[in-house]
Amino acid sequence: MSDETVHAERHTVTFQPLDRALEMRRGEKILAAALAANFPLPYSCQSGVCGSCKAKVTAGVCEHGDAQLAGLSTSEAEQGYVLLCQATPASDVTVECRTVPSVEGYPVRKTACRVAALERLADDVMRIRLKLPANVQFKFLPGQYVDLLIPGGVRRSLSIANSPEDEGFIELHLRNYGGPLSTFVFGKMKENDLLRLDGPFGTFFVRDDSDKPMILLASGTGFAPIKSIIEHELKKQSGRQMTLYWGGRRPHDLYFDSLARSWSRHGITYVPVVSDALSEDGWAGRAGFVHEAVMRDFADLSSYQVYACGAPVVVLSAKRDFTERCGLPDHEFFADIFVSGAAPSA
């Protein structure tokens, strides 16, 4: 069978419990087609790492091809689970998947924006404030992200760092990893530059149908969506108990430490954790891996929700250890993983 014949094949994919169906080509990724049709499915990295889009095939056959599937265990695959971001239909298929109806009221928009302010929060972290057009109503949930487009066609996904109540602008935090966007922002971008953004995207946001205490876990600029979440919770006076753990290699990586400490007056517990402090840093606080600090303080997480954001190794280690060793229910772990490269991330 030729490649042309394979890609010409069309199959129906049915999504339960949504009771909705899509016809798609063999080779077309299921999640991408579902999101294009505005189906309210959970997702994050879209690269097979986080496992947010995990679903069970109850009829038919899906293929993953040569994709790397860090977010799917061998046992789960044997039970019929797939990652929709990488899975493609090889026949008519029915999948049982989790849904997030809350996102249906937050449509994706494409809009122009202008750089209102640039501020270095650390030598390698820039705060970007983008002014939105006065006639654009940009709605988002705290924790979601946008795709920022700059001259040359470069696109990068960045988490929104401000609360939705701050109307008219979007705040982003960018660490300088030396890529095309970092090179532009740290070397060429200036106030009043015209850019474009698409969004909001992602299903990393607080589940308001729960009153469980929250553990908020961030590494590096994973602090950005956590900041958005905390500021929104404070403004709406939710009253939920929140404990923030923020990890970095060295103290200066906790680039908004003073802000995080200021939240204590609102009843938020803040635990900064540094893994590789040098003697000249004078660090006297908690040391080691940030998720292990959580485990030392909370041996039993069975009655908590966890919201984690940052590097894959941090988030995946946290999910594994919190669920296997601390009793956290798998469905109470919510995460956004920052993946480098062209793949969408938060």
From TrEMBL:
Pfam families: FAD_binding_6, Fer2, NAD_binding_1. Residues 11-101 form the 2Fe-2S ferredoxin-type domain. Residues 108-207 form the FAD-binding FR-type domain. It comes from the Bacteria. One of its GO terms (molecular function) is oxidoreductase activity. Its cofactor is [2Fe-2S] cluster; FAD. Gene3D superfamilies: 3.10.20.30, Nucleotide-binding domain of ferredoxin-NADP reductase (FNR) module, Translation factors. Keywords: 2Fe-2S, Iron, Iron-sulfur, Metal-binding. PANTHER family: NADH OXIDOREDUCTASE HCR, PROTEIN RFBI. This is CDP-6-deoxy-delta-3,4-glucoseen reductase. It comes from Trinickia symbiotica.
